[in-house]
Amino acid sequence: MCSSIIIANANRPWILPAIALQASTNDNDNDDTSSADDNEEDGSNDGIDLSLDERLYRVRLSRFPGIEWGTDLSFAFVYVRALDPSGAASMSGQVAVGDQLCELRAVIDSDSNKPVNLLGAPFDYVMTAFATLEKGVQDVELVFFRGSQEDLKAVCTGEGAKKESDTVTITVIQNKGSPEENIQTITAPAGCNVREVLTDNKINVYQSITRWTNCKGKQLCGTCIVDITEGSGQTNRKSMDEASTLRENPDSYRLSCVTFAYGDITVETFPPIEAAQWTR
């Protein structure tokens, strides 16, 4: 069986009982100044056992995957903040905004090197791990956790037992304040894309002609604006691009095409928008 590992960023380290590398018996705490090479010694070539949680996945990408990385306020727990639509990660169709980075492994001559544990690692540590890859490395294998940082921490502390029904409830308010106001409740998989769920249920998120001329969820038109009136903390963080597009609107406003629900939320369609949103 896989034993537990120590998350890279902590004075009193997080223990990850379920998502595990084949760990060494070294009980010393990792510190933030340790190198990626030092970290490799903490595990074997097996890396993270994906079978231990279905929210884990491994993907092989170019070493320059087209991912904008983000962190929490402590500059740790690196996650996918945004995707370059033309980048390898976006083109793979597997990586989603909000996914938590767990592991990096270089691919050399079609073989995989030892993995670098990036669970909870500081941002500088993660960037160094990428920057110090050998020049000949063209591809990397990355392990992600599909969920929020809180979900990942809960798993680390043994409090994250997966719910029997891994679903969320999305309450949708349409035409708020008008005689045609309608409230619809939708059950969807945790981590679902809000735009996809709404459009699949024949709910329009576009107020103008972009209902027919939109970018089909590729974050190019900036017109699928909704208001997360409740449960915004159950969604992924905004990227810089999204925040810029919505800069004159309340913080709860989101582009539904890049919003993922990890818990119950309430969504208002057709919220009032400011003049800067000329595409509407």
From TrEMBL:
Give the 2Fe-2S ferredoxin-type domain ranges: 168-273
A GO CC annotation recorded here is: mitochondrion
Q: Which InterPro entries match?
A: 2Fe-2S_ferredoxin-like_sf, 2Fe-2S_ferredoxin-type, Adrenodoxin-like, Beta-grasp_dom_sf
Question: Into which family does the record put it?
Answer: Belongs to the adrenodoxin/putidaredoxin family.
Gene Ontology terms describing biological process: P450-containing electron transport chain
Q: Which residues cross the membrane?
A: none
The record, for PROSITE patterns, names: 2FE2S_FER_2
The record lists the organism as Seminavis robusta
* Cofactor field: [2Fe-2S] cluster
Q: Which SUPFAM superfamilies match?
A: 2Fe-2S ferredoxin-like (SSF54292)
Q: Which UniProt keywords apply?
A: 2Fe-2S, Iron, Iron-sulfur, Metal-binding
Enumerate composition-biased segments (Acidic residues).
28-44
Gene Ontology molecular-function annotations = 2 iron, 2 sulfur cluster binding; electron transfer activity; metal ion binding
What name goes with this protein? Ferredoxin
Disordered, as annotated region = 26-47
Cell division as a keyword of this entry, yes or no, is no
What range does the record give for the signal peptide?
A: none
